[in-house]
Design a protein that fits this description.
With 123 residues, the protein is an alpha+beta fold. The chain is built from three helices and four strands.
């Protein structure tokens, strides 16, 4: 299992820059020119680790956007990684929001992970 290198969580809404970009992104690798093998989930996870940020999860539906869970040290690092992966402005436009509370049944650890604002209802 991959270990997170970064400490802050970001929920990112990515909007495809065009219908063509969406179609290309959703074309199975074996149907591209040249054809490529379809990666396993582990292979995808390894490829999702960048210098500035790591994509942990992704959700894609039938709309003009997709969602991703990123970990990084800053919001700026998420955008730097999207540019490094040649996604931002070529495939998607993105809006990252830091999430201060992140709980997951997938992680299901014995650690106390739930966070709360210390002074008010805002972090």
């Amino acid at each position: 299992m991959l270990k997170e290198r970064f400490s802050r969580h970001f929920f990112v809404v990515h909007t495809f820059v065009s219908e063509e970009a969406r179609r290309e992104y959703l074309t199975p690798p074996e149907k591209r020119e040249p054809p490529e093998p379809r990666p396993t989930e582990l292979q995808w996870a390894v490829q999702a680790v960048g210098e500035y940020a790591q994509c942990m999860q992704t959700w894609v539906g039938n709309d003009d956007f997709l969602y991703c869970h990123w970990v990084a040290e800053s919001e700026e690092d998420v955008y730097k990684q999207l540019h490094a992966f040649e996604l931002e402005e070529k495939v998607v436009n993105s809006r990252a929001s830091e999430m201060h509370q992140f709980m997951s049944a997938y992680r299901a650890s014995d650690e106390i992970m739930r966070q709360y604002p210390s002074e008010s209802d805002k972090w």
